[in-house]
Amino acid sequence: MQQPADLLTSHGLDALWVTKPENVRYLSGFSTPKDGLVLLHKEGALLYTDARYTEQAKEECFIPQHIARHSDVIQHARTLLEGKVVGYEADALLVNKLHQLAGLQAKKLVPTEGILEARRLIKTPEEIQLIRQAQQIADEALRQALPSLRAGVREVDLALQMEVYMRSHGAEDRAFDITVASGYRSAMPHGTASEKVIQEGELVTFDWGARYRGYYSDCTRAFPVGEISEELKNLYRHTQKALNLALEAIKPGVMTSDLDQVARGYLEEQGLAEHFVHSLGHGVGLAIHENPHLARFRPDLPQYNVPLQAGMVITIEPGLYVAGVGGVRLEELVLVTETGCEVLSHAPFAEV
């Protein structure tokens, strides 16, 4: 990462008050970042947390720590920040916490957005290895669950089986609420696992991931139970084609909106674009959804249309959803390389 002094100076700041959990972990290594914050200043960085985490912070953190009650943090930080220009993460700080920053007696409090996220766009080799490990755990969780996929099984039971596998094989947690959506529920893009019983002739969507040492994985597959309709088969095949076309188009310099259009344009040619209701993908790292955003170009949000760079980790996840019929999403986790991409997810696909 750019040196703190240079990073702060480039944004007109003397310090940055960091409260977003993924950024706290990025700057400190602290594995309970929701109960900490980092003061990034021109001489370095300092983690604030409370006495519950004294030994944990000492063991985990690669920056100095100050252990204090919440009510004493501002008082301590004032000695470093009084009369200084202090930035804060505007998209992560609650209003009541912002009011408390008045106690810093700073020269100026400046709302900021995306300063550290921009630095997290390109993953280090160490970060990539942690994401690989998270995805390997997730891949195997699906393999272990597939023999249980049959008519008469509840969606929630499959989701639980996958979560237990991931937690018992090194994952800190699931990456998000696991989706197991069958039949008509597969037309719900974020239809998390329910008590619905899976039936013959249904297509079942799995969307899941693992969190390993702070880093996330993300993958989606769809599997038929018995013989499915020709309409569902066509949805599956066109989704898979859109996925493969997008993967083939990945290389440094390609704009994120252009990559979205590769998949969306194919589905438009098939008369199916109205059923592709979300963006093509997103970045993955210390957050399950982070920059870059792979979406249609919007003139009012040009900041979200950026060129791909080697070292980015992104998802490619086209999907088609038809109410009353069902849906399918297929997702790969991808590392952008100097010459193209490397697919990090290796969960099996269905033969449809």
TrEMBL record:
UniProt entry keywords in alphabetical sequence: Aminopeptidase, Hydrolase, Metal-binding, Protease
UniProt key word Translocase: no
Domain named Peptidase M24: residues: 130-338
InterPro entries on file: Creatin/AminoP/Spt16_N (IPR029149), Creatinase/aminopeptidase-like (IPR036005), Creatinase_N (IPR000587), Pept_M24 (IPR000994), Pept_M24_MAP (IPR001714), Peptidase_M24B (IPR050659), Peptidase_M24B_aminopep-P_CS (IPR001131)
Gene3D superfamilies: Creatinase/methionine aminopeptidase superfamily, Creatinase/prolidase N-terminal domain
Keyword Acyltransferase: no
Superkingdom assignment: Bacteria
Domain Creatinase N-terminal: 6-122
GO molecular function: aminopeptidase activity
Classification via PROSITE patterns: PROLINE_PEPTIDASE
Protein name: Aminopeptidase
Organism, as annotated: Deinococcus roseus
